[in-house]
Amino acid sequence: MTNTTRTTFENETTLLSLYNLFKNSGDALRTRQTFNLLKKYQDERFDICFCGHFSAGKSSLLNELMNEDILPTSPIPTSANLVSISHGTPEIQIVYWDGRLVSFKPPYNIEAIKQLAKNGEEVSEIRVKTNANFPPHWGLMDTPGIDSTDPAHQAATEEAVQLSDLIFYVADYNHMQAADNFHFLKSIQALNKPFHIIVTQMDKHHEAEITLKEYKHKVEQGLASWGLHPLTISYVSIYNQKSPINELDQLKQLLYSLQQTAKPSKAIDPAVINDLISAHKEWFKSLDEEKVLEDEKRLENVNTEVLESTIPTFLSKKEQLEEALSHWEQQIQEECARTIKSAILMPYETREAAKAFLEAYQSHFKVGLFSTKNKVEKIRQERLDQFHKRLLEHVMILKTQTADTLSKAIEKLIGKHEEITQATNKLSFTLESSLLVSLIHQGATLSGEYVLQYTEDVSETIKKALRRSVLDILNQLKPTIEQGLSEELQKVETQLLELKDQVEAWQDLEEIKQRQAAYFETVERIERGESALSADELKTVAETLDALDVWTPEQLPKAFRKEPKISGQERNTEDENEGEKEDVSPSVSLNLFHQEKSTDQWITIFDNAAGQLRPLKGFQEYVTSLERKSDRLQHQTFTIALFGAFSAGKSSFANALIGRRILPVSPHPTTATINRILPIDETHKHETAEIQLKNEQDLLREINDILKSFKQSIQEIDELDNVLSKVTDSENERMTFLNAAAAGWKSLKAHFGTVLHVSLEEAHAFIADESKACFVEMANIYYDCDLTRQGLILVDTPGADSINARHTEAAFHYIKNADAILYVTYYNHAFSRADEEFLIQLGRVKDAFELDKMFFLVNAIDLARSTNESDEVKHYVQDRLLSFGIRHPRLYGVSSLLAIRAIEASLTPEQKASLQAQSGIDDFYEDWMDYIQNGLRGQLVAQGVKEIQQVQTLLRDFLDNASLSESKRKALKQQIETEFEKAKQSISANEVSYQTRLNDAIEEYYLYVKKRVVQRFLDEFTRFFNPAVLQRGKTASKKELLTQCLTECLEFLSFDLDQENRATFIRVESFMDRLIHEKQALLSSSLEKIGKSWLLHDKEKQPWKTAHIVSSLLDIDPKIYEPVFKYYKNPKQFFEGNGQKIFREALKEQLSQNIDHITEKNKQTVQSHYNQQWQLRMEELGALNTQDLTTQYQQKLEALESNHEQVTQYQNIAANLARHLQG
């Protein structure tokens, strides 16, 4: 940034002051951004940024516009770093992440530079300086693809957009309408950045598929639906520049015009400065983020206003408890003593009774004139009882009062305890009548004074006894009381520590607030133009900036540094299925026989064998089985499922296989239905179709599933228009389906749930027009051609990125049940995220199938400019497939366009053959038909051959037994009976161990399911929670944005978990098939050891009833995750602080618990579901095996009784079977 004469501009002083502030505070990202802005404006540079998806053609376009082949171009992702182009002495600088700078002078080693441009791991930026056809003070930037998930790439693209004065957004012909394009364009429009759109690779356009006018209309319609307003839209082709539809010259003219009119700005937009300051403030706050979070956590549910006044209260309580622990016994005794002392045991009536009692016990007491000893004793007893009764009433009251006082005093100290209640209930004093008599003073004369003395003596005696009883109880409860007091004291001391901790946390927060307020005052002074630097200081900063051009790693913002990936971020295909190795079986070889026989020949062989065996007793099972195989060879159909992302060319490839354009083809998403192309029959004529429409209930459920994300629902479909008027999120991809349903339901409502019989031409609207296709369950097209005459049914599915739940279920059905899977990807854009998700699912289940039934096709291979380029693309695809767990894929480069031209165009036979060869279809078709004939049909033939060989063994056994002498027959009969009993016993062996292995396998599968889903969350976290996403909505609250991100994350993880469940179903069923095969093989081995020629007839593999997902991650209320939101403060914090890590770990912990819960529920259901089927299958298999052995037992015995005529018959049949099988 060296200038001999400095250029000044408005706000320069402010920006220099901010640069110094950011640098000194350690805000590396804002320092770098401010530096780049200063450089841009001091150099008076007008910056144009080129953005777009990987492989959209940005680099090719820039090479063309510069008229220099500098940037690497390829159909696969190449530019892995930021490329900036400016005017100057020709030079290319390579800036590494570690701060190194390497310069290349002309003549350039172009290939070396291109390789460096692909090296995003080491190279951060490539700077190209040129003086050819490039105006001074212009800067062009080529960014990494916007779909890159690398945070450094994202940050580089965001910074380039921030610096740009004008943006050219580049999208390729087939992916112009991708949602990612619209999201990105929406974000740059929100920044008030003017932008143009360039649609590249227009050489892919074919007027026969869609007119140019219609294509442009759909592009404009898509942009309008998102509220996007580009300045212009250019449609260009680099490789076919002579095409009449190519607007490359107009684009060049636009750029030339910009050179003449576009001028660098003389002032920095205040909004940019405000944005920098706002972001810096958030960054500065994030420095104390962990401390603030820690302190806030310490202050949760704490009223800080009363916090300081609470401590004295607890200190007082602590002192009281310490006092109580030392003097509790004395305090309680004194309290009980007061209760006892204040009690009145001798009120007036009781004293009078005491007086009468004392009077009767006077020595001279007489009863009347005729007093007798008996009369005196009787009166004395009566008066004693009366006194005792009255006194006892008051004693009982005192006892209760004392017990209550004692209980309350203890409870006041340590709270209620059952032990206290039981102990205080034992407080007692037994008032015996003899005590009252014993306290009389002998010889005392009855007087008022003596009565008072006596009653006082009685009262004190009773009270003394109660005090003693209290002491006994306290001694008994002493351990409990002292333990309770100690625990309470410890609790209060802990609370005091917490309070002191809370006060400290509160003081910390106040200190942080004050420090931030003081710092922000300095920032605001700079913002107001009151520079915080002197003139000399400003000059020093400016000179320092002039000398700086390359940033060292320490100077780089954290977001721009290359960090190690989270463990597991790259899929380890070797360890992916650790613990599931029992689930992997080698594919069956396709070449089953050395001799080559046609299908018709095998049909004849099987028919002949069945006919030969039909008269023989005991061979009926073989006859039925061979007849069934013959029939299947004649009439069997094979389902071929086509998969791939939208616009990958599935429909055009299907047309190439069929040999005619019978499915609609468009560069925009079309296939919204499941289309099947079937052979004709008596009831279905050539070029007719059946359109199965959804019923109203299913359609309503589907609509409500989508409306749920908008917090809406309907009861009737006619409410949809009204509900959609309330939905403001026009950007949501799901709106396409809802708008289509709203537009078309009235015209088709009368036909819901029915099948429409239409012509092929009429079927096109139901296949491609979303306003009709959204109501279609399935479209069956009947077409007579070479493909369908071989019994092949071709299923063209919706794109792998279809959001439709029914499409996901249908995809699983075809993955599991289709006889072959063809996955089509497009040459220029190998895999989107939707592709990746689908391919991961294929990788999960690939090895669970008996045959490798997957074929992968790179369509539009004709776009390759050389054999090396096409090989490079295929190698790239192969490597990517391996990363998804798909090893040794059958991979083909094809061109459906050339294949269709070879069929339809008016060409010579030689020209057609040449086009057909270039299309690559023949190579694929040859392998594919070999798979059909030797793989699918070959399996059936191999089973039939094995059955004939088993029959030959049984016939030989029969003939051997029939040739024995009479004496040997008798001995053999006994041996056969013994062997038969042993054979029957061996059938039920090891039943329990197999079921245990099944359950162990299911346990292990789900253990790894949980691990993989949690790892996917870690791998994909930044896809859902990143600054770009969280800054989409400027008006939405933080909670709303986080909720939106969380919803998308949960939907993704729920989908991934559901896919894992579906893959597990396939694994379990495959495992059960192998268990049965192993069981039968072991049984056959056991039978061989028992005796000669005991055979089990091969049983046809029966399909299992697949389990269902019973619990989904979306079943859990998402509010359970909201406490995690507190760890998010602002978007900048995610890249520059520890907020992202803290947030991710907290969310992971909650998710792990929920995933555990969901997987456990599904695991239990799967175990129950498949255990029931296993038990039934074992019963059926046992019965069939027993039947096999019984039949053979009867055959062996029959052979011992056979006659010459039977022997001759068996010999002839054996010879015929051998001759036909070998011939």
What percentage of residues falls in helices of 4 or more residues? 55-70%
As a whole number of angstroms, the C-alpha radius of gyration is 46 Å
Question: How many distinct helices?
Answer: 39
> What is the mean predicted local confidence, pLDDT?
81
- Spatial arrangement of strands, main beta sheet: 4-3-5-2-6-1-7-8-9
Largest sheet: 9 strands, mixed
CA distance, first residue to last residue: 87 Å
Number of strands: 18
Structural class: alpha/beta
Strand content: 5-15%
Shape: flat
Low-confidence stretches: 1-8, 550-595
Outline of this structure?
The protein has 1223 residues and is an alpha/beta fold.
Written account of the structure:
Helix content is 59%, strand content 8%. It contains 39 helices and 18 strands. β17, α29 and β18 form a beta-alpha-beta unit. Among the domains are: 7-44 and 533-563, no CATH class; 304-521, no CATH class; 581-630 and 941-1104 and 1111-1222, no CATH class; 637-692 and 778-919, P-loop containing nucleotide triphosphate hydrolases (Rossmann fold, 3-Layer(aba) Sandwich), CATH 3.40.50. The protein is α/β, with parallel strands linked by helices and 1223 residues long.
